[in-house]
UniProtKB/TrEMBL annotation:
Protein name: MarR family transcriptional regulator
HTH marR-type domain mapped to chain residues: 16-62
Organism in which the protein naturally occurs: Saliphagus infecundisoli
UniProt-listed InterPro entries: HTH_MarR-typ (IPR000835), WH-like_DNA-bd_sf (IPR036388), WH_DNA-bd_sf (IPR036390)
Top-rank taxon: Archaea
Lineage of source species: Archaea, Methanobacteriati, Methanobacteriota, Stenosarchaea group, Halobacteria
Length: 78
């Protein structure tokens, strides 16, 4: 299955994670937890979904650094 075929449900929590990533271009999981105020499991679930959809890339495992590749919200507005 092509990653782009995977549906991505963008709820309020996913929006908040995307807001931080789009502001900085990248963020660690810890930074996303701090910036959004959500629990680590909540943020991790959103990151897993965004990664499966091809919207973010996992750059550095020791620091859990994520990079925004393509904001899926831009596709929704087209």
């Amino acid at each position: 299955m092509d990653k782009k075929e995977m549906p991505l449900r963008i709820d309020e929590k996913t929006e908040d994670v995307l807001d931080v990533l789009s502001k900085h271009g990248f963020a660690t999981t810890g930074m996303l937890v701090d910036e959004t105020g959500y629990s680590r499991p909540t943020v991790s679930k959103r990151l897993d979904r965004l990664h499966a959809a091809g919207s973010i890339e996992y750059l550095h495992e020791p620091t859990a650094l994520w990079k925004l590749i393509e904001d899926p919200r831009a596709e929704e507005s087209e």
